Amino acid sequence: MEQRFYDAMADCPVIAAVKNFEGVRACLKSELKIVFVLFGNICNISGIVDQIKGAGKIALVHIDLVEGLSAHEVSVDYIRKNTKADGIISTRMNMINRARELSMYTVFRIFILDSRAFQGIEKQKRQVKADFIEILPGVMPKIIQKVNKLSAQAVIAGGLINDKEDVIEALNAGAISVSTTNQDIWFM
Question: Among 16, 109, 166, 172, which residue's beta carbon has the most beta carbons within 10 A?
Answer without folding.
Answer: 16
